[in-house]
Amino acid sequence: MKKKTYRCGLEAGLEVAGGKWKVLILWHLMPGPRRFGELRRLVGSISEKMLIQTLRQMQEDGIVARKDFREVPPRVVYSLTPFGASLTRALGPLCKWGTKHMARIAARSARRDQASAAD
Predict the structure, then answer these.
(1) Domain that holds residue 118
(2) Are residue 16 and residue 41 in the same domain, yes or no?
């Protein structure tokens, strides 16, 4: 297997944290371990299938750990690995920036949606 090379750190970071759902899942795992159902409620509009797929990718990337308690009813808990926790520290500044500009971003998004609907 050929080793992948990256041109910059951002490209490598996006390889692990990119996608619509990964950052939100990471954010909700920051306070501590969560059960699957909790994550599904917290993330919101994600489907069960997509949450399963995304969590598997995150496990493969080494940023999320899965603990199966092998109980009936089934109990599975997801948590951040130390590698994943180091990634979440990069999310704080992005969240702060998004909070600061939330109204502006929402207004632009609404204008874009209106323009698309008019076409």
Answers:
(1) 93-119
(2) yes
One domain, residues 64 and 21? yes
Q: H or E segment at 108?
A: helix 102-118
Any idea what the CATH number is for the domain that residue 52 is in?
A: 1.10.10.10
- What span, in angstroms and rounded, lies between the C-alpha atoms of 98 and 38? 24
**What are the pLDDT digits (tens) for 38-84?**
999 999 899 999 999 999 999 999 999 999 999 998 899 999 999 99
Give the pairing of strands 76-80 and 34-35: antiparallel
Looking up tokens 């990069």 gives: 90
What are 109's two structure tokens? 């998004």
77 burial via Cβ count (<10 Å: 0-12, 13-18, 19+): middle
In a domain, 4, yes or no: no
DSSP 32: S
- Model's pTM, two decimal places? 0.81
Widest distance between CA atoms in the chain: 54
